[in-house]
């Protein structure tokens, strides 16, 4: 008896809908995810049993390494840029020619920074560096000055002037920069203009988070706290590693 040959047909599946779904999912996760900050200076924080989680956005991060050098950063680029422009227009106006908005290359590099940790007098030199290793070395060898003395006229005090450190000026400028950014968004929303931020879930101010190395000198840590208190910043979170109960 002769065998019947079954005709084989090629099976073709249209993958277009699946590709569309994958692109939509990828776009969703890219827009909603909070990426880990690429910090140049890394520290090993002490352990604790607290389970309180720190915010993943709208934070002013203060890092203190094991040698007591201080660095600050934030996830809001617009805040850092506003802080720089504020300081260049007042306390550090003598560096405006080097770091002003007209220097587009240096400003673009500044926007990409995740941590600030060099004195203003060396900021232009640091931003102009193209060698990554040399740049990281300069950052790690400096830190923001806590002992610098910058006098600002103030007729409302007996001495006629306020005295700040460079660290304090950066903290104040960044806090004010974020507040201005948030209020600008509120004004646009009130006018019926479209904004790309949900103000209902966006904090109205930066929250200070301090991350110190477990070997940070106590004197430096106390100095940072005192510097913050002197500019009326007494609310902050201390970052630690969670220690499980044995």
How do the helices and strands line up, and which of them pair or pack?
Elements: H1 16-32, E1 47-48, E2 59-64, E3 70-74, H2 77-89, H3 96-99, H4 104-111, H5 123-128, H6 132-141, E4 150-153, E5 161-164, H7 166-190, E6 207-212, H8 218-230, E7 237-238, E8 241-242
Helix pairs in contact: 2-7
Question: What is shown here, in short?
Answer:
By secondary structure, this protein is α/β, with parallel strands linked by helices.
Q: How large, in whole angstroms, is the Cα Rg? A: 25 Å
Please give the count of helices: 8
Mean pLDDT across all residues, rounded?
Answer: 83
> Which structural class do you get from the secondary structure elements?
alpha/beta
**Spatial strand arrangement across the major sheet:** 3-2-6-7
Percent of residues in β-strands? 5-15%
Helix coverage percent of residues?
25-40%
Shape type: extended
The largest sheet, given as strand count, sense and whether it forms a barrel, is: 4 strands, mixed
Low-confidence stretches: none
Distance between the termini: 78 Å
**Number of strand segments:** 8
